[in-house]
Design goal:
alpha/beta, binds zinc ion, 288 residues, 10 helices, globular, 9 strands
């Protein structure tokens, strides 16, 4: 594999204002596709925001036309084969044989990081416009609140690659069961309006009001005591986990990796030989 060619040294922009830390994914040329450079930058920024006493709320948003098109499976900055300084106890994935490589990598950068972010003490708001696809959903779902523009849309089309959903399998907890099945089995996008009517999105706003409305909602949270916010987050996380969320995710993660292994045995690679371009074409065709 060739070395990644990064188009930026700052895949996440960080700006703290009045107690709110705004994290803006900054790969607009590639729809904010998440390479490891970006996921590690997000992890560092979220960890720093959680440690910073001047920050009370964390906002996650995308620069350019979209929130996030998902995990990077085909830009020049794709760096799945590169070692990074790890943040979990998992050993480096690079050079591991068979299914071990992908499993170790995704325990660290996908399931592991999403759980770390969900389990942090400070409330997170996803401020979403445009596409929120596959790995993009994972970022939205770790947040406490989701605010979306009218043009936002949500999709998990990875069954085209044989996967029973993305690595962070929160589908059936974010949506009613039939709709969660529909999201995965059809791979079609949910409009912001439908996602709102189903309770997955808290509020829909026009594009020009996304930032101001996100700031207004963040300001409401600023009025609450820090420790109370952390306890509330824990209470909701623990409730969901008692309802089976954590165990369901562990189970689905295993199946997701059976699909990676199956792809490696039966197709060109562990994502069924589908390129970023193929998936973009599928997403364009399905676009609402
Ligand atoms: Zn995967």
């Amino acid at each position: 594999m060739t070395d990644p060619v990064y188009e930026t040294d700052a895949p996440v922009l960080v700006e703290t204002q009045n107690g709110v830390c705004w994290l803006t994914m900054n790969r607009p040329r590639y729809g904010n596709a998440q390479n490891s450079q970006m996921t590690y930058a997000l992890d560092a920024a979220i960890t720093a925001a959680n440690a910073d006493d001047t920050v009370k709320v964390i906002v996650l948003r995308g620069g350019g036309k979209n929130f996030s098109g998902g995990h990077d499976i085909g830009t020049p900055g794709r760096d799945a084969h590169v070692s990074f300084k790890r943040v979990s106890n998992w050993y480096d994935h690079v050079g591991r044989p068979g299914a071990e490589m992908q499993f170790a990598r995704e325990m660290e950068v996908y399931l592991g990081m999403c759980r770390r972010w969900r389990e942090g003490p400070k409330p997170m708001i996803a401020s979403i416009h445009g596409a929120c696809i596959a790995g993009g959903l994972m970022l939205a779902w770790v947040c406490d609140l989701i605010i979306a523009t009218e043009d936002a849309h949500f999709a998990d089309p990875v069954l085209h690659m044989g996967f029973p959903g993305v690595e962070y399998f929160a589908h059936a907890f974010e949506l009613p069961p039939r709709i969660a099945r529909e999201l995965v089995l059809l791979g079609e996008p949910l409009s912001a309006t439908r996602a709102h009517s189903l309770g997955m999105v808290n509020k829909i706003v026009s594009k020009e009001h996304l930032e101001s409305e996100t700031a207004r909602i963040a300001a409401r949270i600023l009025a609450m005591p820090n420790f109370g916010l952390a306890l509330a987050r824990q209470a909701f996380n623990n409730t969901e986990d008692l309802q089976g969320k954590r165990a369901a995710m562990d189970m689905a993660f295993g199946l997701h990796h059976l699909a990676h292994a199956h792809n490696s045995l039966t197709a060109e690679d562990n994502i069924a030989g589908l390129s970023g371009r193929d998936m973009a074409q599928i997403n364009r065709k399905d676009k609402i």
